[in-house]
Structure formats: structure tokens, C-alpha cells
Known about the structure:
The protein is α+β, with helices and mostly antiparallel strands. It has helices at residues 14-31, 38-55, 60-69, 74-84, and strands at 33-37, 96-100, 111-116. It has one domain: CATH 3.90.1030.10. A 3-stranded antiparallel sheet has the order 1-3-2, covered by helices on one side.
Amino acid sequence: MRHHNANRKFGRSSNQRHALLKGLAASLITHGRILTTEAKAKELRPNVEKLVTKAKNPTLASRRLLLSGFYNNEIVVTKLIDDIAPRYTERAGGYTRIVKLAPRKGDASPMALIEFVQ
């Protein structure tokens, strides 16, 4: 039975899926906005929201937890804690926005732009 198991699979095994989401999250934090498929953007949003919420409390423990989630990539974690999280100290969620775009030309996959809210 698939009770309470509603996440998207993307035709990948679980470790490939987690690596995909970590890479997308790192790209979003690094560049501020990324162009991806609508399904990937919708699956990425809750993960990034939780990371920003964790980064709003910049303790050593939260920094180490964030580092473990990004393959010890200090550049991404430092940008998240020092640049992105302070923008949202007064905001209680809703840090990202998904804008739907035209379908991709090759396979007509619905595309979306995911970005941080200003």
C-alpha cells in the first residue's frame, strides 16, 4: 500500500533522487533562480524552504547539519546562512516562488522557474 507516500519518483532510485534534489537546491542557492521542469520545482520547494528556515538560526549545529546536506560544500552553506537567510528574518515561510513557463520544445515537458522571493 502507498499510504502517505506521495513524493515524486522521477523514474530514479531513492539515492539518485536525493542527489538530484541536493544538486537542484545547491544550484538554486548559488544562482538565486533556476529553470527546471514543473514537477522538479514543486518537489524542490519544500526542501529549500526547510533549509532556509534552518539557516535562519546560524548556530554551529545548524551549520553542520546544512553542510551534511550539501556534501560539505561550504560555499553553498555560507551563502545560505550569510546572504539568503537574513533576508527572511521577519518572514515565517514562503521563501520561494514558482513561475510556470511554456513547455519545453523537445519533449513538451512543462517548465517552471523557481526563485527566491525578494
